[in-house]
Amino acid sequence: MENKLNATYIIIDGYVEMTKYRYLYFVIMFTAYILIICSNSTIVYLIWIHQNLHEPMYIFIAALLINAVLFSTVIYPKLFIDFLSENQIISYSACLFQYFMFYSLGGSEFLLLAAMAYDRYVSICKPLQYPTIMRKTTVRMFLVLAWLVPACQVAVPTVLNADKTLCNFTLKGIICNSTFYKLHCVASIVLNIYGLVVFANIVIFPVLFILFTYIRIFIISYRSCREVRKKAAQTCLPHLLVLINFSCSSAYDVLLLRMETDFPKTVRFIMTLQMILYHPLFNPIIYGLKMKEIYKHLKRLFCPGKII
Known about the structure:
The protein is mainly α. The protein has helices at residues 2-8, 18-49, 56-84, 92-125, 130-133, 136-161, 189-223, 226-256, 265-290, 292-302; strands spanning 9-12, 89-91, 170-171. A three-stranded mixed sheet has the order 2-1-3.
């Protein structure tokens, strides 16, 4: 019975001073989760109900915020269970599911940011062609591809890992991300190569595309009138801030956790918390404060008596 349990369940060994701080962890993370749900949902709601926000740029922002809510909903409930449980364990199948959703939604984030960069490029550099290029069907296609492509590509290693033999039943982390591979007895060369291909498809290529489009935008706006430069700064800066923030948090997962160096548990714990806590809260703050139209509607919502 014990061997069967060990073959099915994995011990989560990434928490620091769990016995001492479990309730503090729970209060902090539960508060953060409520803030993530409320802040992201509020902006999505404003985009949905206001007709002047039914433009591709705002639709992509809403998709990005929905993606953050889905990402948090995959991660946070399991954390709450761990905080309130004596033993922090997870079944191998649940770990596989968390791994799939973690990387699938992470890849969607980069593709959505790439779609937003293309939308800004067409809007600023080809304004006369914008209505014909960024039609509703084009926006729908970008949204479907942004969620479908990463899901299909991440599904392959997820399915293949389902039958892998485990030699280690202790996860050195609090979520099933890249540390998941250290549970396997033998590393698969084919899966590692495939992982690099997926990483290039849903991270490297989108980031290079985003950088290329924004360089083009800044070159063209620099040569244009002041109004064009102002529009470029107002609409592109929030997207760049979100890209930089998410790329930095993703670099930790993709690079540091795959290195052979055994980082202290406290460092791993803090970095993982920053990755799952900071980014989902960062997006609605940036878009709520930096996007003029969204900010105006937020002000009307929370300060209805003030004239804007």
